[in-house]
């Protein structure tokens, strides 16, 4: 896993915070009427430090069936897998995340980077 960070003048590599990493995240399951840049901003800020939100529409037409955001996330904790979206007069809806280019060191059992499922000693991950 490569986690590139800029460090300030005079800083040692040991002083640079490597606990955060940027990911492109696909957000699936969002209802059509919430498929906009503002929703991407809200979700991105919920996950970590928002870097970028792709506008899902081009000329007023959806380009793809999911939102796409780039967020800096604390990788010392389990990566969030999704959330329940409460809706009026409808049952809650599971909205889930797909991380693009997830490193091989990601554990699909507990959701933490830096080890794989076969060597995992943690309990199963929970949703955010």
TrEMBL record:
Domain of life: Eukaryota
InterPro entries listed in its UniProt record: At4g02000-like, Zn_knuckle_CX2CX4HX4C
A Pfam cross-reference name: zf-CCHC_4
Record domain Zinc knuckle CX2CX4HX4C: where: 93-121
PANTHER family associated with the record: DUF4283 DOMAIN-CONTAINING PROTEIN, GLYCINE-RICH CELL WALL STRUCTURAL PROTEIN 1.8-LIKE
Protein name per the record: Zinc knuckle CX2CX4HX4C domain-containing protein
Organism: Arachis hypogaea (Peanut)
Species classification: Eukaryota, Viridiplantae, Streptophyta, Embryophyta, Tracheophyta
